[in-house]
Amino acid sequence: MMEIVNCIPADLDMIFDLFESAIAYQKQKGYDLWPVFNRTMVETDVREERQWKIIEGNSVLCVFTVMYNDPVIWLEKDDDPAIYLHRITVNPLFKGQRMMEVVKSWALNHAREKGKKFVRMDTWGNNENLRNYYVSCGFAYIGQQELKHVEGLPDHYGGTHLSLFEIEVNR
């Protein structure tokens, strides 16, 4: 049976291994690449219980991060009660098993428990395959957003063109 639990500090190497496999997949497909994420940032996500993992038995199927505000990407819409999904990474051994459906179901429940109205996320603006996949998972495509470099935001966001998505919690 699958469970979704917080990551712990002992998971950090595994998380970064999954990030590396995601970057290798992005290279293979010719997509824009994730950067090498800042370890301190991910350690903070783990410590503050924002980094989650889907486990089944002894296997980690997927990891993802949940944020409770995202003003740089969502601008004035950040005033809406929402949670934000980031760095969703599926273990290559479990690709094709629609882990996003599991993440979405959990995120909707989590948002409901937190009194939020939306689950939101973003991805590279020119990744049409991923954009279509998220829409097939029930997310509404909101549009494109061009980001400028902002102090405190990871460097890879500077000048980035993003696709934005949301789903209403009580839809």
Short key terms for the protein model shown above:
single chain; 171 residues; alpha+beta; Aminopeptidase; seven-stranded mixed sheet; 5 helices; 32% helix; globular
Structure description:
This protein is α+β, with helices and mostly antiparallel strands and 171 residues long. The chain is built from five helices and seven strands; from the N terminus they run βααββαβαβαββ. Strands 1-2-3-4-5-7-6 form a seven-stranded mixed beta sheet. A hairpin with a 2-residue loop joins strand 2 and strand 3 (59-67). The protein starts with a strand and ends with a strand. The model has no long low-confidence stretch (mean pLDDT 92).
Secondary structure layout plus pairing:
Blueprint lengths: L1 E5 L5 H18 L9 H9 L3 E6 L2 E9 L3 H4 L7 E9 L8 H15 L4 E7 L3 H9 L3 E7 L14 E8 L3
Parallel strand pairs: 4-5
Antiparallel strand pairs: 1-2, 2-3, 3-4, 5-7, 6-7
Short description:
Helices cover 32% and strands 30% of the residues. The protein has helices spanning 12-29, 39-47, 71-74, 99-113, 128-136; strands spanning 2-6, 51-56, 59-67, 82-90, 118-124, 140-146, 161-168.
How much is the radius of gyration in Å? Answer: 15 Å
Q: Label the overall shape.
A: globular
| SSE string | EHHEEHEHEHEE
Contiguous helical run count: 5
Beta-strand percentage range: 25-35%
Helical content, roughly? 25-40%
Largest sheet: 7 strands, mixed
* Count of beta strands: 7
Average residue-wise pLDDT: 92
